[in-house]
Amino acid sequence: MAKGRSDTRERAQAVARELFLKQGLQRTSLQEIADRLGITKPALYYHFSSREALVRSIIEPLFEDGDAFVAAAEREWPAPRDLLEHYFALHYHHRDVVALIVQELTALNDLGLVGKIFDWRHRLAHVLLGPELSFDEEVRATVALGGIADTVMVFPDAPFEELRDAAVDAGLSTLGL
Fold it and tell me: Which of 43, 52, 56, 168 has the most crowded Cβ, counting Cβ within 10 A?
């Protein structure tokens, strides 16, 4: 991809992410994004074929990293603390996208962009607690993994290591590990 096209695409994603978080998906028009970039709406369509394509392009890096992380965890069966530390880091690195997903859960679910996160949690629960989980273990895993992911939004100004350690300790405690 040409450098200019790549720069405009990345700037468009940054502006869209900012406006989506501030105003919501439905209240942010493609025209507003184009105006902020100083380009025409057709020029924006050159980079993204639709609003959905723009939204997907913002969320896709999290999904790619998350899919790779879960697949690696299933192959390698890391120690629970290591798994949860890396799970936290995944969400911390993509915290703006995590916030967007939580804020726009219904709209993103309608685009089929939410189920993958719940699938990750289900698969990671089996890595953490074994192949046959009781209902209680499934619930504890959901609370632990969801809580760890949520900390990156609830405590946005906390230092990375301090927040990671507290979140992982809480997750391990919830899991009974």
Answer: 168
Q: Report d(CA 136, CA 26) in Å as an integer.
A: 38
What is the rounded distance in angstroms from the CA atom of residue 141 to the CA atom of residue 125? 5
Model pTM?
0.87
Count of alpha carbons within 13 Å of 60, Cβ hemisphere only? Answer: 8
Q: Say how far apart CA 171 and CA 121 lie, in whole Å.
A: 13
Distance CA 93, CA 8 (A): 22
Rounded Cα distance between 44 and 8, Å, is: 9
Cβ distance 15 to 28 under 8 Å? no
pLDDT in tens, 49-95: 988 899 999 999 999 999 999 999 999 999 999 999 999 999 999 99
Taking the alpha carbons of 41, 44, 48, 49 in that order, is the dihedral positive or negative?
positive
Q: Which residues are within 8 A (CB) of 20 and not within 5 positions of it... i.e. 6 or more apart?
A: 28, 55, 58, 100, 104
Pairwise CA distance, residues 6 & 4, whole Å:
5
